[in-house]
Amino acid sequence: MFLVDFFLRRVGEDKLKAVRLNLRMARVPRSVTEFLTGVVTQSIVTAFMVFGVTLFLGARFNLPLYPLLAVFGGLGGGYGFYSLSLANLSSTAKSRQREIEARLPHALAFMLALSKGGVGIIRIFKELSQHEDDYGEICKEANAVVRNVELFGESPVEAIMDVAETTPSEKFREFLKTLATVVETGADLSQFLATRCDKAYFEARDAQIKSFETVAIMAEISTISVGLMPFLLLVVLIPMHMMNPMPGIVFYAVTYVAIPVGALTFILILSQYSPWEARRRRKIEVEPPGREKLQLGKIGSFFGGEGRRKISSFLEEVVEEPIKVFWTSVPVAVGFMILRFGTGLLNIETFIGLQPKIETTLVFALLIALIPFIILHERREKRIDKIVSITPDYLSSLSAAVSSGLPPAKAIKTLPPERFGALAPELIKVRRDIEWGSPASEALSNMERRIKSGLLMRITSVMKIASRATTAIGDVLSVLANDVSTEVFLKRERKAQTFTYVLITYMIFMVFAMTAVGMVAVFIPALPSQNVEMPAGVGIGIAPIDPEMIRRIFFHAVLIQAFFLGILAGQFRTGRIRDGLKHSVIMCFVGWLLFVGIDVLPLSSFISLPQPQVT
Question: What's the total number of domains in the chain?
Answer without folding.
Answer: 4
